[in-house]
Amino acid sequence: MENNQKYALITGGSAGIGFELAKLFAADKYNLVLVALEEQELANAAAQLRQQGVEVITMAKDLFDRQNAYAVYDEVKAKGIQIDVLVNDAGQGAYGLFKDNDIERELLIIDLNIASLVILTKLFVQDMVARNEGKILNLASIASQTPGPWQAVYHATKAFVLSFSEGIRYELKDHNISVTALQPGATDTDFFAKADMLDAKIVQDKSSLSDPADVAKDGYEALMAGTDKVVSGFKNKAMMAMSNVTPETTLAGMMDQIQKPVDKDKE
């Protein structure tokens, strides 16, 4: 399928799952608008993606500041670009016990993972409704369906993303707009470093981490098929199936065991 005039906007598109998604869009000849924090990372990603013969526009924006979500939309409109696919990939976590974590850091996580995602979705959805066409991919997580000791705020933000995605998907079903939630598990990206989570048990065994390219492929295929949500990876699918029949307190205890620091004595 030729998509030379189509554009996908990807937040967090310079690295990790976002960059792997960008490569898949480029392979299908979607032009790209990449939004991320670091200009050099964006430049490096864009140079690689342009080799596939697509246009790549970069926007270095700090989406921890929700006002920059409005700025992204304004810049896109000023360039006269129509966004056919919106990918809300940008997100971070704050590791540690809630009682100890810095509240300002946690509020920034909420602004990034929820507020900026909602703003971008609101603005681009209104354009999609006007032309009766569009696709949205939101990065949820298997964390969206489990309580998260040591990452309580992050898990809660992803629960919001999943619920929000499912709610607006139904609202938009008569407007030829599909909304897909991608639910990866722990993935081999820089997420853990940014969350100061490198001491967590779940991070120590690299073999247990998913390949971001595999996660992106699962998400891309689900998006293009118009699927409502997809859990990436057999192990994660099994975990989600088990979570549906496991008491919340038991799930919380299980997450505590895999997310607490390796040197943390069980209290």
From TrEMBL:
Keywords: Oxidoreductase. GO terms for molecular function: oxidoreductase activity. The keyword Plastid does not apply. Pfam families: adh_short. Gene3D superfamilies: NAD(P)-binding Rossmann-like Domain. InterPro entries: NAD(P)-bd_dom_sf, SDR_fam. The keyword Oxidoreductase applies. Belongs to the short-chain dehydrogenases/reductases (SDR) family. This is SDR family oxidoreductase.
